[in-house]
């Protein structure tokens, strides 16, 4: 039964639909599809571009959003929407509407957005929108309205509508009201009465034909932002805004205003003064500003009179503007101003006089402007500044960029005791900046003087204790540096830009003393030296050593051919080192050894052929390494690439894809590092034939070089070592036992050897074995300790340098182990992977086994995973405890360490367990 009923309804709806469809067809052009597309899920219907002449009647009754724009609808009738009571959004723009009946929208109690723009509407009925309490946006632009439409009920009634309560609420929620591009010529006070209880964010009357704004016309307009741009005003009458407190911002730009007519404030009660805080009058035709022009605008904070034809002002032009903070007078024709032009506006903080035609700037213009902190005079054709003291003692920012200043001397800035920022960029005639030019302005924090023609550093900056930022980049000739100590007391400077100043490497160090130009810059964070001429860079290894706070060093495009291994010494804070576009071929292995905070290294576009194995051994923070466009053909096995690396670019290098590169090729597959520009990493013509010009990714070492060729190399080396060692031990067995015997005899007779050996019995009292990379620990920690606490040890072997010269390496090692009272080995993650180091360790352990004395101390510089420890070491540690763990950053821990070490040094105890080797 239900099913049959439902079918019946379906049938009715379908019939109605077909019927209507037919009707609509008859009235309109034949090649359009007249059916609206309805979307039931969001209750919308799109009927635009359907050639409709009336609102369709066949739509679902619960439609909430209806678009009938771009049709040929002429009229909206009272009945047009009676069935669409759920409508919230209605777009009827771009039609030919000229008539809308007075009750058309009365059923649409939920309507929020109504678009009626681009029609032919010239009048609208009074009660049109009086029921639409939820209306939020109303657009009526591009119509033919001659007056402000009265559509929210009878304006005379609204005065007592509060009494009736209900009805006229059409604009209660209306926030945006667009009336631009109509034909409104006349505005009258009564036009806005009906809107009195509304509140608009924007009320837009742009592009109308309004010719005047009568006194107090806006009294009842409750809009925050009023736009009346592009109208035909000739006079701006200050009294137009009397009585209005709602309007905060007014823009009347490009409206042909030629004069401002002040109001006679003495006759007007103060509570009628306008509440406007921002007034934009740019792009008008004002020639001058009369005295007291805007008197009464007591709340005005921002006044923009830019892009007018102003050539003169009075010193009373801005009187009455008690709150004015920001004044824009840019792009006018001002050549000169009266003394104290702005003194009236006592709160004025910022004046923009850019793009005027000021030949000679006179500081007296600003006399009395005690709050002035920013003065912009950008591109104003200034060639001279009168040598008269400035009276604006609070001025902090002075922009003089893009002018024609001839000179700046000790008189130019007299009075500016609080000046913080001075911009002299691009004054092409400015070749004369005297030695004491900045003497009067020692408060300066920022000096920008890029793009000058000539400049000589005469030590002017050395006493500027406050200076934080100095930019002298893009000088047209070589920066001259004529004395020492340019920055000796510039201790606050954080950014120094000397890019493209034609300086040479020799300029970075000072005459005779060979000290660095940068001495004294203890706070320097960023040093930009791009595009200079550092051919002799390797001759100035001291240039940067004073800059231990430096974070960024930019040496891009400086023609650097060669780098001294000490040049970046002491730059322990450096995070960004930019060396791209130079001529560098080789970087010494130790060049980056102090850069433990380096994060970003750009070596793009150099001629680098080799990456030293240990180059990155100390840059443990390196995250971004850019090596593209170099001449790298191979990367040696076990080259140290930091695990911190996030991004590596090595594209465009002539890689030789042979087995020598196998290790690196496999490293590329293993790491988490992002390898960018992958498709540009190619095998060069020196590669295996089938790989030439292929990407490196088509090189699979297993296919070409057998299984892990480098592993085999490593393993066989180990085997050879062990073999040669065994032979050695075998050969020396008798001699060894004999010596041991004699030793026992000499010291303790036939008793068990216990704690009776003394260091003096040995040729060396201490033998330190370590990998070259760990030498810093010996220098920084061990040596000071030995000097301080164990000065009696006279014969100490420090690594390989203490070995007997001239003998076979293995022999020399064996000799020193044997003849040392104690042998200390430094273990780190890197050292346990070093074949030679492990050989030494094995020899030491074997020797210990033979002597059965605890002659070996292992010092762990860091925690090493058990898996990474060779079996031999684990075995040794499990049975004996001849090891110490160094603790960083913990003084107590270090004290304990040294105490244990001292104890260990006291005797060679007998071993608990012998290791089966
Ligand atoms: C007209 O448009 C509707 C909705 O987009 C569609 O369902 C119908 O098939 C179209 N009719 C023709 C004749 O193209
Ligand atoms: C409104 O809908 C009813 C029922 O569907 C219909 O009879 C009536 O003609 C519709 N009115 C208009 C003006 O579309
Ligand atoms: C709409 O206009 C008609 C005739 O012009 C008039 O009778 C009716 O009262 C008006 N309705 C309203 C709400 O003003
Ligand atoms: C600066 O102006 C104030 C008031 O206008 C005046 O009293 C003072 O003498 C002036 N100072 C100089 C150095 O001109
Ligand atoms: C500025 O320098 C000139 C000469 O260089 C000197 O005569 C004059 O006293 C200086 N003025 C000030 C204010 O230091
Ligand atoms: C290196 O930096 C230290 C501070 O870390 C500083 O005291 C020292 O003067 C610098 N060395 C040179 C040669 O400037
Ligand atoms: C490295 O420096 C070059 C030259 O300044 C620049 O073009 C490139 O973008 C830099 N590379 C990266 C990844 O920042």
From TrEMBL:
Signal sequence, renumbered to the chain: 1-22
GO cellular component, one term: plasma membrane
Keywords of this entry: Cell adhesion, Glycoprotein, Immunoglobulin domain, Leucine-rich repeat, Membrane, Receptor, Repeat, Signal, Transmembrane, Transmembrane helix
Alphabetical GO biological process terms: cell adhesion; signal transduction
Membrane-traversing stretches: 709-730
Membrane topology label: Single-pass type I membrane protein
InterPro entries found in the cross-reference section: AMIGO, Cys-rich_flank_reg_C, Leu-rich_rpt, Leu-rich_rpt_typical-subtyp, LRR_5, LRR_dom_sf, TIR_dom, Toll_tir_struct_dom_sf
Ranges for domain TIR: 762-905
Protein's cellular compartments: Cell membrane
PROSITE patterns: LRR (PS51450), TIR (PS50104)
Family: Belongs to the immunoglobulin superfamily. AMIGO family. Belongs to the Toll-like receptor family.
Protein name per the record: TIR domain-containing protein
Organism, as annotated: Strongylocentrotus purpuratus
